Amino acid sequence: MIIKFKPFEQMLSRLQSSKNDSDIAYFYDLLLFGEYVTKVISLFLVSAINEDNDRSKYRQEYSLVRGNAIGDFSKSIEEVLTGPSSQLLTSEIRDFEFKELTLRSTDGDWQYDSQKLLMEALKVFNLEVQPLASKSALRNWFNNFSFLRNKTKGHGATTVESASLACPLLEESIFLIVNNFTAFSRPWAYLHRNYSGKYRISVLGEKTNDFDYLKSDTSYNFENGIYCLVDKPRKINLFLSNPELSDFFLSNGNLKNEKYECISYITDERLIISASDYLTPTTLLPSSHTEGNNELDVIGNTFTNLPDSVDEYVKRPQLENELSKVLKETDRFPIVTLLGRGGIGKTSLALNVIREIASDEKANRFNLIIWFSARDIDLLIDGPKQVQTKVLNQKDIAEEYCKLVCPNENIKDKQTFFSTQLNKNNEGDTLYIFDNFETVTNPVEVFEWINTYIRNPNKVLITSRISRNFKADYPVEIQGMDELECKELIDIFSKKFSIESLLTPKYIEEIITESDGHPYIIKILLGEVAKSRKLNKIQRIVADQEKILNTLFKRTFNNLSPAAKRVFLTLASWNSIIPQIAVEAVLWRPTNEKIDVEGAIDELIKSSFIELVNEDNEALINIPLAARLFGIRELEVYPEKIKIYDDRKLLMEFGASNNSSISVGLMPKIERKFSEVAKRIDSLEEFMRELPTLEYIATKFPKAYNNIVDIFEEYRDYESAKYYMREYLKNSLPPTEKARVWLKFADLCKTTEDWDGESHALSQLILIPNVIFEFISTAVNRINNFYHNNPEAKTVEYRQLLLDKVIEVVIKRINEGDATDYSRLAWLLINNSEEKRALAMVEKGLSIEPENQHCQRLYTKILAMNNLR
User: Fold this and answer.
1) Does 284 score more than 90 pLDDT?
2) Higher-scoring residue by pLDDT: 155, 225
3) I need a labelling partner for 16 at 20 to 30 A (CA). Which of 30, 139, 539, 784 fits?
4) How far is CA 215 from CA 200, 242, 548, 595, in A?
5) Could you write out the DSSP letters of every residue in 708-760?
6) Is 262 left (phi over 0), alpha (psi -120 to 50) or beta?
7) Residue 719: is it exposed, middle or buried by C-beta count within 10 angstroms (0-12/13-18/19+)?
């Protein structure tokens, strides 16, 4: 049993425990292990699918997030390996995982032997299956395993004799796959991006240096999560953990109310996750209304596929003149970017300027203008609508170009050909436009490709919400419309909607101010007036447009650095114009890492999330209404929401010190002290020299203990972190905060294998008055796991007394739970030697859900243990 893959390694302790319990328990846990392996292989294969216009990767994830049975995952393996998606798999797995799963192996090959052992296990239960052929691909194993699982655990009544015979066969079959499948020997890691932009690397397999470049290079932007290094780091969606790797969770279906369930096969804990990324139907989407035409047409003396002009366009003279001038340059600025928020008018501006340039026959600037659209969402008056993306990568771009310009030529290497056309085009001076550039699969990689080959007098124009990690020769930033432009837009659409008589001068001014001159938001506000035929409060209208807010800001927000996200959400939490110096004073405190506040603010300005007032003097930060309302929604699910609320209090105190429990003069000094410490330290040793002063501050302001704990966690000094968490818990804390701290304390204890500390923390969490029942249920399950792994703990007197108190609380609250919660309470009673009461709780659980497997198995176990009936 050699396992060098941490997610499976942790499963061994559960397997060993059940093996010592009974053959039936071991057989069921082996089935769980088989499910675990199947799901991980399925998700690995899906991660290896390259993005395409048909959204093949998304289709698989869309199905798996709804998959309520292991058969859905084995089906996905089959589809990825044999269906159209197989052509999209990265070439890096062709000679390895793909071959191992699809090669028709023979007797003596580990793939074949694994199948043979599984077939023998099936025969133990007298299950009718097709005999194993003399040659068989490993992909067949997963369907047969699903069959075994469903016929035994799902719809069978497994006997002790059958389980005893099947266990060694199933065990060897699974371990042949685990120890030989190439994916599990690749570099795997959990990537967590720190405020500095560098990554904390938690390795899942054998020690590897493959991800170490992320510890020092801040130019990469990987979402926190589990990655496997194949041709590049590929995120394994629907597979969750944390930087400590304390547990692993996999999608478990049960999608309802736009949320789905994830399960840990190690601890049986469950997470409820938002399914917002997987709600778009997988059917073919319509094309964008700004997608380029499928054939070249002529405008003036220029061949082009420009889409039709946008209706109701409001001229923006200053921006138009700047863009027109730079595009007409023949010896400078080969790459021009139009940067700005979603819906700010980048595409409309580009289309109108380029159409005018093409129509100018005297200037005759370009012989060819090609429009490439990567747009995936159209912003329509009735709301955002998802559309089919036309180009996603270099291959799509090159093929689209050849289809338009050389439809009758057989060009074998289209990418190489297009690269030469960027340099010197056969048709003459050429303008290449890439609209919605942030949507391409790898913007940095595509930009580098374009930047390498483009040469004057040819030009590239990119429209994008983001420019992070790539730099144009001439960036044009598009802000909101000025007052005259806004009034012209309002005039056009008020006539279109027949609401001129409803609008008052005051309301028009409010629209301009609250929209920050954002044209799409202005159109939405006018559309809502047209629907209701009355002047509704603008803030309420914008707040109700959740889908629109997500469309305008979500993608840009996701691409912000962790520091910029932290600063933005702190600013959004308070509806006020905030002095920049106050933000710096509050946020330059030691949290997990030092925060580059100035850099974060600069990034937020460039991304149009905030604007500076009085830049030359004492700068003030303002957040436009729509951005702030988006930030408030994001804050609700942000992991460090509690810290941000603490920061908001400090910001408010900075402006109104008479409301505070601490003096005006002391507050800035405290924050400056933390700021100076954060600037100086680079190691745990340096931090320890500063610690006595910080401890003193924390005794006066207990929430500062969170900062101290976070720094110790950053340096992985978990024992010190636990010590300061205990100090924090000595203070009077709200129930929810106290529960959070005890749960985090328990996680730290688990990480350090401090089983006594973990059980104590969980018991204290349960005893908190008015704590939500989900916390109690999770804690009870973990306490049961503790006693299961440490049976000798039951004899310790103080533990007995503590367990009595815990049971008393849980019994009072158990009516808030479901059948599984009753089974967990029953286990508590068993651990307290109260089998009869445990049986009563199991029976109540079965009365709620007769088919509940936890209650069924426990009912049988209690009867067998004690002969109660």
Assistant:
1) no
2) 225
3) 139
4) 7, 17, 36, 16
5) HHHHHHHTT-HHHHHHHHHHHHTS---HHHHHHHHHHHHHHHHHTT-HHHHHH
6) beta
7) exposed
